[in-house]
Write a structure and sequence with these properties.
The chain is built from 7 helices and no strands. 61% of the residues lie in helices and 0% in strands. By secondary structure, it is mostly helical. 15% of the residues are buried. Helix 3 packs antiparallel against helix 4.
């Protein structure tokens, strides 16, 4: 997708102003006796000093940055005014030749100071007060209370079941039934069979079997 090209009026104005200022600085340096490549180096030096000052002012508004900004501005603006017909470029005065000749050293000094002087450190944020520490004296710790042991319950003794009394007549009848069962099956009669034959409770049948043994 093609993007439409828009001309920024401010950018165009900046290019025109920069080109004219560059040409005025070149003409002034050439008129002051700086010929050849040296005349073109002067506007570059002034513009680089302005760039260094602008970068420093973005991070710190110090007096040093403002001072070198005024120096570079006077150099650029003075060249523009001098080439406007107020100065005879064919007969440049000696003091202007001295200023033009001393400009490289002055620009180097300003650029070095702007680049290598440390910026003012930002104030550290105020630290929040720490909460007071309460000292706890642990030299005298209370002794732990003795553990109280609960005695284990004594198991209850089994209650002996009351002895079952068996009538002798029932014992004789049971003996006959047991003899008959042994004759028929060849084995002793058990409690369940004797209980079924006699029709008595289980505990009574057990007592009878114990007496028959």
């Amino acid at each position: 997708m093609s993007r439409s090209f828009r001309i920024d009026a401010v950018l165009v104005q900046a290019v025109i102003a920069g080109a004219l200022s560059f040409a005025h600085l070149h003409d002034l340096a050439e008129a002051a006796g700086q010929t050849g490549w040296k005349a073109w180096a002067y506007p570059v030096s002034v513009d680089l000093l302005l760039v260094a000052v602008w970068r420093r002012l973005r991070t710190e508004r110090s007096r040093l940055a403002w001072f070198w900004f005024l120096v570079a501005l006077v150099a650029s603006l003075g060249a523009n005014i001098a080439t406007a017909g107020l100065l005879d470029l064919e007969n440049v005065p000696a003091w202007l030749r001295i200023l033009v000749a001393g400009w490289p050293a002055l620009a180097f000094l300003g650029g070095t100071l702007l680049a290598h002087q440390p910026a003012d450190p930002a104030p550290a944020p105020a630290s929040e007060p720490s909460p007071p520490v309460v000292a706890v004296d642990r030299s005298e710790e209370p002794e732990p209370a003795p553990e109280i042991t609960t005695p284990e319950p004594v198991p209850a003794l089994p209650v002996a079941a009351p002895a079952v009394s068996v009538p002798p007549a029932l014992v004789d009848h049971a003996r006959k039934v047991a003899t008959e069962h042994r004759t028929r099956t060849g084995t002793d009669i058990d409690t369940a069979t004797l209980r079924a034959r006699l029709g008595v409770p289980e505990d009574l049948a057990g007592a009878i079997v114990a007496q028959l043994a």
